[in-house]
Amino acid sequence: MRGIELPANLVVIYLLIHLRFIGLMFSSPVFAGTLSPMPFRYIFATALTACSIGIIKAESIPVIYFGNVIALGILCVRELMIGAALGFISALPLYALRIAGEQTGSIIGFSMAQIMDPTTQSETSILGELSYLVAMWFYFRWNGHLVMLQAVIETFRLVPPGQINLMPSGDLQLGSWLQAMFTLGIRMVVPFYCACVLSDIGLGFLARTVPQMNIFVVGLPVKVMLGFMVLAAVLPLTMDLVHTQFERWVEFALDVLRFWRAVP
Fold first, then answer.
1. 263 falls within a domain
2. Taking residues 185-207, what's their average pLDDT?
3. Contact, 261 vs 165, CB < 8 A?
4. Which of 32, 106, 156, 157 could form a disulfide with 111 if both were Cys (CB 3.0 to 4.6 A apart)?
5. How many domains does the chain fold into?
6. pLDDT at position 4, please?
7. Residue 205: inside a domain
8. 86 exposure class (CB count in 10 Å sphere: 0-12, 13-18, 19+)
9. What is the pLDDT of residues 226-240, one digit of tens each?
10. Which of 164, 158, 167, 165 is nearest to 75 (CA)?
11. Which helix H or strand E contains 115, and what residues bound it?
């Protein structure tokens, strides 16, 4: 093989595998955030790379990538984007659950109450953060982190390094998946909207029958109490709903990456 010698070829292969794991570590909410320091994420990605070094053979990568610095740079960016896309797309149900929690807090009157998110160091809704942290706990309980690592290993078979295709080789079906994402968020918030409508109807009858009562003072604690009652009843069902969506979105991420591999 011309160009770089064999030991340097192995270093290039190690770098390509390492960049794909790096993209996952810095995009997936399971590994990203301030709770896991950056050196820890990098060392963890290095350990995973060392365990996966035998997946790719030097013969599977064209010679041009070893002898051309520009082509090698493009290939490195591609590997980083593959890992980042896998981590982000697979975590969309978690983001949908956080948005649904924020909408729930706005419905029951918690829109002005903000707390500091320890993972992003930004202000967020109380119920949104509660739903997100509960979902993260169940994510580890369901071995979602192991599923993510298995998905990265699967990408080396579906999209091997050295195959660059600028245009997708098939229909990505993004419209149907965005529709499924929107439907998932609506299904999480609908019970709270229904409870809010029923409480408004009840408060309206109360205001008509007892006009001396200050309905604005009574309405806020009633909505908060009703919201927490609905949350206690709906949150387990929501976790079951999200559980059924995790593997589907991992499969969708793998399908998206598979369509971008080069056609032989």
1. no
2. 84
3. yes
4. 106
5. 1
6. 44
7. yes
8. buried
9. 888 888 888 888 888
10. 164
11. strand 114-117
